[in-house]
Request: fold
Amino acid sequence: MSLGYQDTPIIPGSKYHVHDGERPQPKVVTPGENGAPPSDAIVLFDGSSLDGWRNGRGEAAQWEIKDGALAVVPGTGDHHTAQALGDGHLHLEFKSPVVVKGEGQGRGNSGVFLMGLYEIQVLDCYQNPTYPDGTTGAIYGQFPPLANACRKPGEWSTYDIIFEGPKFSEEALVAPARVTVILNGVLLHHAKELQGPTMHRELASYHHHAPELPLKLQDHGDLVEFRNIWFRPLGAYDQA
Ligand code: MG
Reply:
């Protein structure tokens, strides 16, 4: 029994007919229940172990597990995954400190550094103005988010970030990095092209780097917590 058609035109750029029943079936992924990771996700933090995390010197993580969350320990520095990651979908949840302290960039500051280089800002921007390209969800120093979708301090927020790293030919940039960011179900960036690795008070520009690098979370001195961190490589069409 044929699932589809073979007497239809070939779809340009593919070797398959329109409605081709012989085309590879999409792989089965079981969605997680109640926010749990999908069945094929790379779980980067499951609430119980710091094994997959390192401090800035590549040593055992110095952040803490607090009620199942990965908690920044101020002064220990940025932490990164042991595993290098490339293009894909990152999911994580974060919580700003319940006790509101400081203002502007000094309130609940952390950051999600894709490939350790490209920061999507984490900040408590609930009734806390600061420079727009440094607000929650900003591509820091480049593009403000399309919306401020912050929850109140102490409430968990959800990031879904789809990131494609820059492509290089030898040393030359062929395609810039692109990112789509959804915070609490609200779109903040759609396939936005980055200008280069994150800088502070300077313009960004690309330098050649590997296609897979560890994910980094920032210690900016504030008591930010993370949980349910997972990653799914982007994948490709027609991979049976
Ligand atoms: Mg930051």
